[in-house]
Design brief:
By secondary structure, the protein is mainly beta. The chain has 2 domains: 2-198, Jelly Rolls, CATH 2.60.120; 229-415, Jelly Rolls. The protein has helices spanning 178-190, 381-393, and strands at residues 2-4, 13-20, 28-34, 43-49, 58-61, 71-77, 81-86, 89-95, 110-117, 140-142, 192-195, 229-231, 239-246, 254-260, 269-275, 284-287, 314-319, 340-343, 395-398. The protein has a 6-stranded antiparallel beta sheet. Strands 17-13-14-15-16-19 form a 6-stranded antiparallel beta sheet. Strands 8-7-6-1-10 form a 5-stranded antiparallel beta sheet. β3 (28-34) and β4 form a beta hairpin. The longest helix has 13 residues, at 178-190.
Length: 416
C-alpha cells in the first residue's frame, strides 16, 4: 500500500492502515500515523492484536516527511513471523511464539483504512488537539498490491493459507536475512522512540514475546556521600541518574527525577514520577531546553499538604538498558565507562524537618515552616504560564493521556 499523509497542521489526526478480523477475540495488525503540528514529525505507531489481546505498541520517527510524497507500507504475515515494512525496510518483527503461550494472529483478516480524531491521545500525549480550521484532512492511498488467499466465510479456518504453494510461506520468509536484520537494527537504534517491551511501569514483568533482560547493574555500584558527586555524561545511553525522595517499607511514597541517558548528540530525557502508598505509574517525560551535561542546573521539589519541598535526596546510578534509551533498543556501551555525573549543593539547599521514625509527618504541616505558607499552595500566574509553556513545548509523554495504558483517565489527571 502506498500512502501520502495529510500535510500542514495534522495534530490530533490519526491515519490508519490495518488488517483486522471481526467478532470476539479479534486479530489485528496496525499502521497508525499520529499527526502533528507543522514542522514536527509525524509518529508511526504499530500494534499487534492476537485473540483480542493488543497493548503491543511500538512508535518510531520516520526518516522522511510522509506528507511530501507517497511511501510504501506493507505487512508480511505467515505462520513464522509478521514483519512491518516501510519502503521495504523492516521496522518491526513479531515472531510466532505460540509454543510458549504467546498469542499469534490466526484468523482471516481484511484490509481497512481510516482517518479519525485522536485528539485525546495521539499528539503530545493528547495535549495538542485537532485544529479544525485546517480541515478537511486528506490522506491519499494508492497501489493496492495485495497478495493473499481467500478464506471460505462458512469455514473461516486459515489453515489452507499455510500452504507452501504461496510465496510468502517459503522458507526464505521464515526469518530475515542478514541485510534485512542490519536494516532493522538500524531502525531500532536510530528511530524507535517507544517499545512496550521496555515499558516497565506498564509491564513490570517483561511480556513473554519480548527480548528478556541482559543482567543487573544495581548490585555493582558504590555511592560516595558528600556535598559533591561526580558522574561522566558522555555516551550515557541506557544509564539513569536519579535524585529522589523516598520512604521505605511497604506502601512507600516516592518523588522522582530520573535522567534517561542517550547517545552523544541526542537529548537526555527527564522523567518524573510520583508514588503514594506504593502506587506509582505516574510518569511524565520532557526534553529539556538546555544541555544538562554542559553545566550545573537546579532541580528542586516543593512538597507540602497542598501540592508537591525537599526532605531527603538519594543520588543513584543504574543500568536501565531494558527501558531507558530508545525504548530499550539502545543498551549501555560499557566501553565508555566509567559514567560520571556531578551533584552539588547538598550542604545548604535541602530544607525540611526531622520526623521521629515512630511517628507520622503531621508536625511537618505546621504553618511555622515557610513551605507551608499559603503562597505555596498554588502556582502564581507567572509560574502557571511557565508551566503551561513547558507542557506545550517540551512534554513528550504524560501518563494521563496514555489511553492504551489507562483506558479510564486517572482521577488526579482531571485536576492538573
Amino acid at each position: 500500500m502506498q500512502i501520502k499523509l495529510p500535510g500542514n497542521n495534522s495534530a490530533g489526526v490519526v491515519t490508519a492502515f490495518y488488517l483486522t478480523s471481526h467478532g470476539d477475540n479479534h486479530d489485528e495488525l496496525d499502521f497508525e500515523f499520529l499527526g502533528n503540528v507543522e514542522g514536527k514529525p509525524i509518529v508511526l505507531q504499530t500494534n499487534v492484536f492476537a485473540n483480542g489481546q493488543g497493548n503491543r505498541e511500538q512508535r518510531l520517527n520516520l526518516w522522511f516527511d510522509p506528507t511530501a510524497d507517497f511511501h510504501t507500507y506493507k505487512i508480511l504475515w505467515n505462520p513464522h513471523q509478521i514483519v512491518f515494512y516501510v519502503d521495504n525496510v523492516p521496522i518491526r518483527v513479531f515472531k510466532n511464539k505460540t509454543d510458549i503461550g504467546v498469542g499469534y494472529p490466526s484468523r482471516a483478516m481484511q484490509i481497512e483504512a481510516s482517518l479519525w480524531d485522536g485528539s485525546s491521545w495521539a499528539t503530545d500525549g493528547g495535549q495538542t488537539k485537532i485544529d479544525w480550521s485546517y480541515a478537511p484532512f486528506k490522506a491519499n492511498f494508492r497501489g493496492f498490491d495485495i497478495s493473499g488467499c481467500t478464506v471460505d466465510q462458512q469455514n473461516s479456518s486459515i489453515q489452507p493459507c499455510y500452504s507452501l504453494g504461496y510465496w510468502w510461506n517459503a522458507k526464505k520468509f521464515w526469518k530475515m536475512d542478514s541485510k534485512q536484520q542490519a536494516a532493522y537494527q538500524n531502525v531500532k537504534n536510530n528511530y524507535v522512540t517507544y517499545d512496550y517491551c521496555s515499558d516497565k511501569p506498564r509491564f513490570p514483568t517483561t511480556p513473554a514475546e519480548c527480548p528478556q533482560g541482559d543482567g543487573i547493574f544495581d548490585k555493582n555500584y558504590v555511592i560516595t556521600w558528600g556535598t559533591d558527586h561526580e558522574l561522566d555524561l558522555d555516551r550515557s545511553e541506557a544509564l539513569v541518574r536519579d535524585s529522589f525522595l523516598t520512604s521505605h517499607g511497604d506502601n512507600h511514597d516516592e518523588l522522582d527525577f530520573e535522567f534517561l541517558g542517550n547517545l552523544e548528540g541526542k537529548p537526555i530525557i527527564l522523567q518524573t514520577n510520583v508514588f503514594t502508598n506504593g502506587q506509582g505509574n505516574r510518569e511524565q517525560k520532557i526534553n529539556l531546553w538546555f544541555d544538562p551535561t554542559a553545566e550545573f542546573h537546579n532541580y528542586e521539589i516543593l512538597w507540602n499538604p497542598h501540592q508537591i519541598v525537599c526532605w531527603r535526596w538519594i543520588p543513584f546510578k543504574g543500568n536501565a538498558s531494558s527501558w531507558a534509551t530508545g525504548g530499550g533498543q539502545i543498551k549501555t556501551n560499557w566501553s565508555q565507562a566509567p559514567f560520571k555525573a556531578n551533584f552539588r549543593g547538598f550542604d545548604h539547599d535541602i530544607i525540611g524537618c526531622t520526623a521521629d521514625q515512630n511517628s507520622g509527618i503531621q508536625p511537618f504541616y505546621s504553618s511555622g515552616y515557610w513551605w507551608n505558607g499559603d503562597k505555596y499552595w498554588n502556582l502564581d500566574t507567572r509560574q502557571q504560564a511557565s508551566y503551561e509553556n513547558v507542557k506545550k513545548k517540551y512534554l513528550t509523554y504524560d501518563y494521563c493521556s496514555d489511553r492504551p495504558r489507562f483506558p479510564a483517565t486517572p482521577p488526579e489527571c482531571t485536576h492538573q
